[in-house]
Amino acid sequence: MGRGRTVAVVRARVALWKRLSDDGFSMYAIGQAVGRHHTTVMHALRK
User: Fold this and answer.
1) In a domain, 2, yes or no
2) pLDDT at 3 over 80
3) Separation of alpha carbons 47 and 17, rounded Å
4) What confidence tier does 1 reach under pLDDT thresholds 50, 70, 90?
5) Cα 41 from Cα 13, distance rounded (Å)
6) How many structural domains comprise the chain?
7) Mind listing the pLDDT tens digit for each residue in 17-38?
8) Environment class of 32 (CB within 10 Å of its CB; exposed 0-12, middle 13-18, buried 19+)
9) Which domain holds residue 29?
């Protein structure tokens, strides 16, 4: 895994994205806020 992809970092990142999604933010808005493509957010939340 590369830098920024340790298990703890990935879990924390996905937890934040899940919380934002639950609070009504769109995948696009979450992606824009964290500098990722919205499909990256969608894929992570499906797992």
Assistant:
1) no
2) no
3) 12
4) low
5) 10
6) 1
7) 999 999 999 999 999 999 999 9
8) middle
9) 7-46
